[in-house]
Design brief:
Distance between the termini: 58 Å
Number of helices: 9
Shape: globular
Organism: Rhynchospora pubera
Largest sheet: 7 strands, mixed
Number of strands: 11
InterPro entries: Methyltransf_16 (IPR019410), SAM-dependent_MTases_sf (IPR029063)
Pfam families: Methyltransf_16
Structural class: alpha/beta
Protein name: S-adenosyl-L-methionine-dependent methyltransferases superfamily protein
Keywords: Methyltransferase, Transferase
Helix content: 25-40%
Strand order of the largest sheet: 5-4-3-6-9-11-10
Length: 256
């Protein structure tokens, strides 16, 4: 099955040139077949209208359970973790729903990213405008490939339900290492470089930049541990900070 195709003009046209922007009946039928638009409720009671691919070869088509569980966790910890000046990068954004939720709820400076596929980028932009936002900055990036910027500046990197393809774990870890180890703050306005969150009554101090991920899609326990062991071998520290929520940072020497 082919990947869904659609015209950029159908997303961003202003209606001034009817001939250029109008779709034939055949094209309209094709769009109806490859997209499904649903309303999803994010916490506490935010309804987002999200257009999803009926099929996408890279699984960028649907909202997965980890998205909503992660939204709950982020809402619970937003006072200590999030603020409007925080710069956030989401890996594997898919439809962009989680990023839209965070931008709408906390006004964070968030950038979406996913596989180097213009269709994903255009659909995220469509979902942004459908929910009253300007299209968010987006980076097309395939894990393991050189990153478009040599100086990543995001204090917080997030992802949900991205551990589906075991063969991609080394590439994902390679990208994470680059983003965490090559972090260069743009300026000093982002605030303190540390965040504290409370997990099961224990306060955990985290030094930025950090990667926080959640998932609910079922993967084998061995596959899960394979990813964590790969992170540790690459010099990263993995912390369990919630129900199937994990924080990954650069391994730092213990203070004497």
């Amino acid at each position: 099955m082919e990947t869904a195709l659609f015209s950029p003009a159908s997303l961003f046209g202003d209606g001034d040139d009817d001939n250029a922007l109008s779709l034939s009946q055949h094209e309209q039928q094709e769009q109806e077949e490859v997209f499904v638009e649903r309303t999803h409720t994010f916490p506490p009671q935010m309804n987002l209208k999200i257009r999803e691919f009926s099929f996408h070869i890279l699984n960028a088509n649907l909202l997965w359970p980890g998205t909503f569980a992660f939204a709950d966790w982020l809402l619970l910890h937003h006072q200590s973790l999030l603020h409007p000046r925080l710069r956030v990068l989401e890996l594997g954004s898919g439809t962009g729903a989680l990023a839209i939720f965070l931008k709408s709820s906390f006004q964070v400076d968030i950038t979406t990213s996913d596989y180097d596929d213009p269709q994903i980028e255009l659909n995220i932009a469509h979902n942004c405008t459908s929910n009253g936002l300007h299209p968010l900055p987006h980076i097309r990036h395939t894990w393991g490939e050189p990153f478009p910027t040599s100086a990543p500046y995001w204090e917080l990197i997030i992802a949900s339900d991205i551990l589906l393809y075991v063969k991609q774990y080394p590439n994902l870890i390679k990208t994470l290492c680059f983003l965490l180890e090559s972090y260069k703050p743009l300026d000093q306005i982002s605030g303190t470089t540390k965040r504290s969150i409370t997990v099961s009554g224990e306060e955990i101090e985290l030094e930025l930049p950090i990667f926080i991920m959640s998932w609910r899609r079922r993967i084998g326990k061995e596959d899960e541990q394979l990813f964590f062991r790969g992170c540790e071998k690459a010099g990263l520290t993995v912390r369990h900070v919630g129900s199937r929520v994990y924080c990954i940072t650069i391994a730092r020497p213990s203070s004497q």
